[in-house]
Amino acid sequence: MDNEVRQTNEMAFGRPNDEGMSREASRVRNLLLGLPRMGCPADFEFRLQRRLDELESGVRPVRERHGWGVGWAGLGLGVATALLVAVVLFDFSFSSRDIRVPGAPVTSATNAPKTVAPPDANPLMVSSPQQVSPDANAAAVHEQSPAMAAAKDSNTSKNPPTALPEDLYHMVGGNSP
Amino acid sequence: MVERPVGSPSDEDLIVAFQGGDVLAFDEIVRRYRDPLYNFVVRLLGDTFFSEDVVQETFLRVYRNKHRYHQVAKFSTWIYTIASNLAKTELRRRKVRNFFSISSKGEDEKDYDLVDTTVDIEREVDGILKTEAILKEIDKLPHHFKEAVLLRDIQDLSYEEISQILNVPLGTVKSRVNRGRSRLQKKLGFLVREESEGG
Fold first, then answer.
1. Model-level pTM greater than 0.80?
2. pLDDT digits (tens, 9 = 90+) for B71-84
């Protein structure tokens, strides 16, 4: 009798440790137990055997290889992205910037005046476009600063401009004879 | 539950034989567990392609790690634990994939292969619709409820086994199963009533 009751209970409420379950819950359980069972595809064992053979022969499983491939691709993509971000952020492009020596005053190479002399330059040296004779030059110096005119040139070995040997003419600007 | 003919070796005997080098014992394990595991994983993932992969991977793990099994636990608990963990990993991957891609499939378009069992078209359609409705609601359950309900009410495992598989206390398993059932009951009210009227 007891056995019969237990069997009836099991049929209605499932296995013994579901005792005390409500009727509604037992109906849900019955619905779920009544769901169609899924079976493996027909070639399941063939594919499993192939993978086992690969495992035995030491070939890395396809899934694992795929994982590695994706991993390396991800790493490459990450590095490329980092480089791109670095280029955008820090602007390594030299073309748009002036190249200058550290510590040098900031000047724009493209805008720098090429023919204008600095304000403290000797006007006799650069401002006159026509040629000045050595005597006239000396007279002008004497006129402006007698002390400078009286001072001797410290470089005694220097050739005076008038005494330049013929074979060195090419070193001086202007028309060579 | 995995059925085995009377007088045939138990699962534990088979894995011990396999540990001793008997490859035929492994074949018998595969024969016994392929369909129950597949049924469990398909219901958990709602997808046949990845489920087959997960079940194959489960058997490969058993094959590779056969010496890790010790007879303190039931073999069924061990193999279901492996399958469950692999299914969780697959679900995590899927979340990442879904995050990065726009899926063409909607929530309601799952790949459920239904078993062709009846000849009567009307009953067949009715059965399919009912099954789809149930599966859809199971799929909407939070993962920890779904897993517990599937193991208890579809795989028909005991609470003790489920507790070991999920590595949670017995009380937690019972609570999860009850809460899962109660949610299903609310959602499938009309089917539950039909069930009670039908017998």
1. no
2. 778 899 999 999 99
Q: Which CATH fold topology does B114-192 show?
A: Arc Repressor Mutant, subunit A (1.10.10)
Q: Which CATH class is domain B1-110?
A: mainly alpha
For an interface test with A, the pick among B154, B173, B197 (most A C-beta atoms closer than 10 Å) comes out as B154
Q: Would you tell me the crossing angle of helices B23-45 and A44-56 to the nearest 10 degrees? A: 120
Using CB atoms, pick whichever of A25, A40, A52 lies closest to residue B60.
A52
What are the residue ranges spanned by the domains of chain B? 1-110, 114-192
Q: Where are the alpha helices (DSSP H) in B65-153?
A: 75-100, 121-140, 143-149
Do the Cβ atoms of A89 and A83 come closer than 8 Å?
Answer: no
When CB atoms are compared, the residue of B57, B115, B181 closest to A25 is B181
The Cα B132–Cα B126 span in angstroms is 10
Residue A38 and residue B35: Cβ atoms within 8 Å? yes
d(CA A97, CA A102): 14
Q: What contacts B91, CB < 8 A, 6 or more positions away?
A: B44, B45, B143
Cβ neighbours of A45 in B, within 8 Å: 30, 34
Instruction: Kindly determine whether residue A40 and residue B42, on different chains, have CB atoms separated by under 8 Å.
Output: no
**Tens-level pLDDT at each residue, chain A (177 residues):** 344 444 444 444 444 456 677 788 888 888 888 888 888 888 898 999 999 998 888 766 555 555 556 677 888 889 999 888 888 877 665 555 555 555 555 554 455 455 555 555 455 554 445 555 667 777 887 788 778 777 776 666 666 666 667 777 776 665 544
**Contact residues, A window 42-61, toward B, CB-based 8 Å cutoff:** 44-45, 47-48, 51-52, 55, 61
